[in-house]
Amino acid sequence: MSSADRTHLNERTSVPDHGPADCKTAGIRMHVEDISAGGNAALEPGVFFEMGATLPDAAPHPAPALEIPLPGVDDAEGARVPEGLPPVVDAHVHVFPEPLCEAVWAWFARHGWPIRYRLHAPQLVEFLQARGVDHLVALHYAHKPGVARELNRFVAQLVRRYPQVTGMATVFPGEDGDETILREAFDLGLAGVKLHSHVQCFDMQSPGMHRIYALCARLGKPLIMHVGREPKSPAYACDPYALCDSRRLEAVLHGYPELRVCVPHLGADEYAEYQRLIEDHENLWLDTTMALARYLPLPDPPALEDLRADRIMFGSDLPNIPYAWDRELRHLAAMGLAQDRLTRLLSTNAGEFYGIDLPPPVNQHAPVERI
């Protein structure tokens, strides 16, 4: 391993040493269950892990929005996808092995919001299918070095069990054998890569990240990475406002024009910047995750009619949401969007980005009333 990717795989700290000498180091401390290297998910409960990455200096930014846990919302939920919508691909749902799921939900309860649907992976898939969602994209991320292979095998098994699921791979940027881990995951049938800067604390210009970009570009694999600055929690030991400036992503887009990238949450909170980026770059997509719910204490995003129609995908963030599963779908059904734009947003764009083989779009029902 080069000094640029040196990672200390101590049980309590792992700090990839990369970036220029004038960089600062940041880390994240997360209470999770450890997944052993064995073939089964043997777990050691109650262990804290610290992760870090060297980060270029950044200008100061505002304080985080989520200073305390936000409240749950007891809004009504529908029994099915709202009438009037075309087929729905939920391009952003989270799946983890059960003990890790429970740890993530406990973290959200302390530092984010209460989880309304405590559904483990098979339950989540069947919940959405029973309510009329046609396809879903399963996402996860490695919170520390050494666990990605087990997580990737877990998602690959889910994909084999449910053909209506497209699964992403993950890796901890800069860890030993990162390219091999991803190639193995692609061989298992996983379709692309998911990363989360707030959790993994990576510098977008680190050597480990450049290896991921190059591999995905070379193999034609999409990369979805949470590199928007929000929603930010003070529980993160690394500062998303230092890591996630949209200008840093633009440098990646310029450097890897063949790399397809999706940024969740419409790029929150840099909505205007990401609106420009999807106009200027053919290799960038955004998803709507939580941005349409009117829940987070953030400015409103741009109107969907003002965003490039072929670059926006619907995503729910299930199960990690505090409101009704169909809240954003009901908002979409009531917006009066042109049918072609709605079809692209709910299915076609995700099909093109993730390589999902979807049937030709067909209108399901008559339009619904505005709400």
Task: Kindly describe this structure.
The structure is a single chain. This protein has 371 residues and is α/β, with parallel strands linked by helices. The chain has a single domain (83-354), classed as TIM Barrel. The chain is 30% helix and 16% strand. The chain has 11 helices and 11 strands. The chain has helices spanning 98-111, 121-130, 148-161, 178-187, 197-200, 207-219, 240-243, 246-255, 271-280, 327-334, 339-354, and strands spanning 13-14, 24-35, 43-55, 89-94, 135-139, 165-167, 193-196, 223-226, 261-263, 284-287, 312-313. Strand 9, helix 9 and strand 10 form a beta-alpha-beta unit. It is globular, with a radius of gyration of 19 Å.
Briefly characterize the structure:
The chain has 371 residues and is of the alpha/beta class. 30% of the residues lie in helices and 16% in strands.
Give a topology summary.
Elements: E1 13-14, E2 24-35, E3 43-55, E4 89-94, H1 98-111, H2 121-130, E5 135-139, H3 148-161, E6 165-167, H4 178-187, E7 193-196, H5 197-200, H6 207-219, E8 223-226, H7 240-243, H8 246-255, E9 261-263, H9 271-280, E10 284-287, E11 312-313, H10 327-334, H11 339-354
Parallel strand pairs: 1-3, 4-5, 5-6, 7-8, 8-9, 9-10, 10-11
Antiparallel strand pairs: 2-3
Helix pairs in contact: 3-4
